[in-house]
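Query structure, 764 tokens:
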């Protein structure tokens, strides 16, 4: 049995070189360079490596986990050893998610090229696989794992082991029944096609078959009319259901006979429901579909805090790679903490801590190279300036020379308007956010230097690393000077101290913005939510994590989105619930980093997130989610006999009245195809702000449940009807073939005497 990748690898010279293996140097730093034997395994997708001293122990990774291959000195690590190793020997494997890069040095340029080309081809081939090829690859992977003696056949004992590896605890009698059905040759072993048949029997979707049967009169196919009825009644597609039915048959029906008859078989039906069109997230919302011509203040903006850090805030590594990762994720606001460095070169690090230092010059070079690879819309460079006037001038010069035309230096048409320009107007531009001498309207006849507070994040809550400098300044009543050169580069993001909403309403300009600690922002949101919403309709607000979060943990961004804060900065290097919400919100609109706020947060309406029912045109919705089944859920414990007991929890994040969660019961010993058929109901008061998070956990009665997978989707992007939810790992990467099957119904809530019925859900 050959996998699609192994067949591809057989006829390629570069991949044959990789299969033969090579001694490559793995480089972690100037002082850590060690020889490792690397080779591509027979499956054509797993790379195996070990040191010569490691005995039988070794490591592996899948080519599917590699996003791109960089050639030459294109990482900080390889740049640091550039004098020792020429560029034509060096390459970097960049992994998906938050996994660190793998920097390698070959023994010859030809060997390096074979690996660079080979891995690139494997990545391209994996990405171009169709659904059938992906399933074939999946089947082959399981066959390889279960074929312990590598004889290309599987006996019943190996099949029993395989079932446990696949998260299935099946009684021996039924397992033997399936084995016998697949063993057409009666040899007592499953070979190539017999194993494929066994896998197909194992993965039969009775849950989808029942749905199919509800609409198929003959039980074999859905006619065009029957498919149209399904789309109209279940998928709530309305008028376009007839046209769409024909499109689905043309796109997903594998049988040419059924196609000619204008019908869909169960195979075509299943292919449709597991495709992006059958997903819970409307694929049309994944494209750039929002109005991008409104003022910047009318958008939520994907934002990173202390972007230079790869880890914690006290001893973590500062790295250009952290900027690359943030920009790749769609972040449109990144932060730079600048301090005086040696030889007149400003450095970037978390001041008054043991975090490592990188050159400001290198950060800006990285920004110039990667700013617009994931999105063409503007990037805000949030500058925390702790430098002397002399090194500020160096910063201004570096910004000017490295960024060139990308850097916005003056108002777009030479005029200062009453509202900010739009993301569309600012495409391809980098905006500097920092303190500024004077205003945009002034003729700028001030002196070449001015004094102001050192740090924008100067609202100390505790003696933390975050604001030590600000506290020291306050205690000694010192002021820091600003250079004219750096000040002149600040246009639409002038940092100002926040006094009050009344003061801002009377005196502030649209291009002036304030930064708030998470606790200050939360207090303002709770006490004066309506005023905060109104303020944010005209001016930008940035919120940053507490300095006490030295572990780089995050706060819940939803509370600040509820009052319209645009730049809710998170530690993007830290996976978890908060980043799931952030990724969920910004997954829409082409992952461009900008999401248009609801209209009631952009106009003069008085919206109070604590009293949403007071809003004009208020209508609440009922969200009903039938959790039907799960498919091929991941194992938490990799021990061979360990099988999960999965449950599904649905969590709603939004205004305080919408915060809720409910969960299903758990299923004993079945992560392969658990069946729940349980319905969870929620009332949503502000659907425009709500996020729905689906979490799968392994139930443990003795300790905390283990996380298995999740998917977060904006309520407004949900497709109703029978849908699959494609699960993501804690790191936000896809878990192959791991899904939930649900039926989603959305309806208006009938109010009784002006009140919405309360369902008593538990708060998140």
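Result returned for the query:
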């Amino acid at each position: 049995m050959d996998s699609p990748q192994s067949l591809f690898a057989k006829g390629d010279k570069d991949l044959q070189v990789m299969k033969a293996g090579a001694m490559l140097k793995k480089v972690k730093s100037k002082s850590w360079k060690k020889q490792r034997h690397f080779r591509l395994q027979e499956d054509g997708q797993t790379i195996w490596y070990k040191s010569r001293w490691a005995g039988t122990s070794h490591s592996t990774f899948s080519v599917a986990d590699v996003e791109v291959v960089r050639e030459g000195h294109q990482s900080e690590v390889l740049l640091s050893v550039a004098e020792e190793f020429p560029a034509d020997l060096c390459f970097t494997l960049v992994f998906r998610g938050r996994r660190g890069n793998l920097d390698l040095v070959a023994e010859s340029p030809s060997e390096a090229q074979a690996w660079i080309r080979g891995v690139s081809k494997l990545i391209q081939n994996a990405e171009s696989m169709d659904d059938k090829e992906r399933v074939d690859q999946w089947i082959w992977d399981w066959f390889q794992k279960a074929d312990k003696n590598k004889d290309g056949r599987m006996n019943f004992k190996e099949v029993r082991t395989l079932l446990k590896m696949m998260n299935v605890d099946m009684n021996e009698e039924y397992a033997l029944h399936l084995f016998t059905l697949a063993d057409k040759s009666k040899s007592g072993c499953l070979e190539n096609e017999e194993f494929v048949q066994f896998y197909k029997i194992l993965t039969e979707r009775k849950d989808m078959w029942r749905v199919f049967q509800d609409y198929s009169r003959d039980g074999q196919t859905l006619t065009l009319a029957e498919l149209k009825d399904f789309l109209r009644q279940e998928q709530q597609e309305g008028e376009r259901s007839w046209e769409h039915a024909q499109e689905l048959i043309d796109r997903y029906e594998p049988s040419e006979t059924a196609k000619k008859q204008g019908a869909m078989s169960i195979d075509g039906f299943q292919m449709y429901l597991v495709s992006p069109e059958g997903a819970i997230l409307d694929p049309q919302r994944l494209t750039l579909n929002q109005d991008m011509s409104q003022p910047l203040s009318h958008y939520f903006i994907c934002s990173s805090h202390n972007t230079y850090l790869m880890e914690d805030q006290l001893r973590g590594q500062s790295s250009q790679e952290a900027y690359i990762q943030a920009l790749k994720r769609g972040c449109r606001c990144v932060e730079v903490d600048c301090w005086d460095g040696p030889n007149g070169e400003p450095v970037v690090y978390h001041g008054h801590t043991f975090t490592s230092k990188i050159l400001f010059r290198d950060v800006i070079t990285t920004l110039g190279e990667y700013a617009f690879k994931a999105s063409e819309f503007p990037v805000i460079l949030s500058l925390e300036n702790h430098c002397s006037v002399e090194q500020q001038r160096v910063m201004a010069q570096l910004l000017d020379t490295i960024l060139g035309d990308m850097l916005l230096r003056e108002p777009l048409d030479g005029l200062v308007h009453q509202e900010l320009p739009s993301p569309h107007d600012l495409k391809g531009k980098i905006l500097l956010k920092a303190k500024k001498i004077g205003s945009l309207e002034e003729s700028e006849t001030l002196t070449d230097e001015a004094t102001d507070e050192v740090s924008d994040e100067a609202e100390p809550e505790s003696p933390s690393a975050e604001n030590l400098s600000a506290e020291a300044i306050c205690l000694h009543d010192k002021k820091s000077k600003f250079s004219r050169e750096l000040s002149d580069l600040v246009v639409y993001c002038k940092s100002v101290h926040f006094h009050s909403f009344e003061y801002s309403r009377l005196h502030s300009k649209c291009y002036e913005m304030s930064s708030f600690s998470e606790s200050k922002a939360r207090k303002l949101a709770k006490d004066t939510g309506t005023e905060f919403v109104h303020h944010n309709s005209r001016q930008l607000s940035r919120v940053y994590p507490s300095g006490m979060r030295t572990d780089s943990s995050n706060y819940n961004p939803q509370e600040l989105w509820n009052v319209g804060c645009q730049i809710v900065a998170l530690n993007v290097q830290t996976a978890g619930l908060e980043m799931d919400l952030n990724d969920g919100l910004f997954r829409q609109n082409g992952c461009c980093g900008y999401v248009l706020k609801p209209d009631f947060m952009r106009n003069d309406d008085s919206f109070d997130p604590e009293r949403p029912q007071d809003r004009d045109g208020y209508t609440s919705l009922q969200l009903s989610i039938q959790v039907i089944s799960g498919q091929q859920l991941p194992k938490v414990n990799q021990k061979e006999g360990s099988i999960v007991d999965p449950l599904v929890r649905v969590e709603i994040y939004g205004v305080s009245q919408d915060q809720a969660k409910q969960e299903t019961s758990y299923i004993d010993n079945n992560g392969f195809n658990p069946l729940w058929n349980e319905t969870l109901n929620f009332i949503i008061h502000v659907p425009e702000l709500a996020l729905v998070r689906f979490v799968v956990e392994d139930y443990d009665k003795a300790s905390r449940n283990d996380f298995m997978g999740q998917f977060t989707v904006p309520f407004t992007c949900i497709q109703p009807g029978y849908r699959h939810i494609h699960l993501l790992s804690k790191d936000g990467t896809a878990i192959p073939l791991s899904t939930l099957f649900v039926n989603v119904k959305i309806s208006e809530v009938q109010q009784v005497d002006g009140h919405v019925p309360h369902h008593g859900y538990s708060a998140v």
